[in-house]
Amino acid sequence: MRGIKTTAFLSVCALFGVAQAHGQSTAASGMDGMSGMSMEVPQLPHAPVVVRVDSARHEVEITAGPFHLPAMPPGMDMMEMMGDMAGGHAAHLEQLITRFKWPMTDWLRGYHLEITDQNGKLLPQRTMHHMEFVNFDRRQLVYPLAERVLGIGEETATIMLPRTVGLPLTKGQEVGVFLMWNNDTGHDMDGVMLHFMLKSSPANLTPRPVAVLPFKVDVNSHPGMPDSWDVPPGPGTYSKASIFTVPVSGRLLGIGGHMHDHGVEMRIEDVATGKVLAHVHAIRDSSGDVSGVSRQLLAVKGKGPHLRVGREYRMVAVYENHSTETLKGVMAVIGGLFAPDNIKQWPAVDRNSAEYQRDIAVMLHPTVDLAASSTFAFSDDDSGIDYLSLVSPEARF
Question: In the chain, helix, strand, coil percent, each to 5?
Fold first, then answer.
C-alpha cells in the first residue's frame, strides 16, 4: 500500500460512523419476526426529498424540507428524549430521510452539509443531533450489519479526503440517509431545509486511490438492543472489554471515537500478546464533561497495524466514577478507516440474517413494515443532470 500523505485523516472518527447517538433504546423484544411489527410511537416530521445527481461533477446532492420541528421540552436532554418514544416528541427521533440506488460507480471522498431556515439563513449544525449515511448492500467489517458509511455529529466539520484515498461505492447499491433533529431553541421551527452534498472521484481515476472502508467497534454491541451500559458507583475507574475478529485482513489507518461524560480512554489490543495497537482518549474538562475524543493517525509514518483473519483483538473502554451514583447509559465506540489487503475478499452482506434485520428494524423504528417498499420517481432532463425524487418519504423497507 502506498504511503498516505494527508491531514484529512484527522477527521476519520467524524467521517466514518462514530459521530452518532444510537437510537437502539427503542428496540422491542422478540424481534425475529420483523414484518408487520408495530409499536406506539409518534409520527415523524417527514418532508419532500429530492436527490440530484451530477455525474459530470461526481456529486450527489440530497435536499429535504421544509420540516416543522417542535421544540424540545425545557430541561429534557437528548438521551431522555430518545427514550421518550410515546411522549410525542417526533422531531427528536431518528428517521429515514431517503433511500435510493447509488447512481454511479466511484470513490466517495467527502461531504458538505448545510441546514437553513425558512428564509435561507444558515442554522447551527446542532439543529441536527446526528446523521448517518448507510449502505444497505455492504456489511460492516466487524459486524454483519449494514455499513455506516458516514456518521455526522453536531460539531462535525465538512470533510474531503485526498484523491489518493477513496471509499468505493458501486452503481445500484442501496443507500439511505438517517437523521435525528435536535431543536433546543425553546420554540417550534418551521421551514427548516437540509442540504447534504456527497462528493466523489471517478472510478477510472489514475493513479488508483487506496480503497478504504469504515472501521467500527462497539464495546457493547448487541444488534437490535441498546448498546449503552452503566458504570457502577466509585470512587475509581471501570473497564469494559469485548473481543472481536475481522473476516478480511488489512491495515487500520486511523481511529477516533465516541464516549460520554466521565469517559477516560479506549484502546485496541492484540489478545495473544497484549500489545496495544491503537489508543484514543476522551477530551474533557476538570469535572469530567467530555467534549470529544482524540484521534490517532496510524498510517502517517508507516502502514498502520495489520489486523489478520483468525486473530482475536480486544477493545477496552475505561470510564471513571468518583460519585456514589451509577453512571447511566454510557457508550464507547471506536471508528476509523480500514484498508483491506484484498477488497474482493470482503464478505457479502446477508440482508436476511436475524442480526441484520434487527439492526434495520431499530434504525427504522418498529412501526414500519419491512416487507413494504418506498416509491421513487426518476426523470432526466437535457442538461445532463439526473433527478431522483422521493415520492413517498415514509420509512418503508
Answer: 10, 45, 45
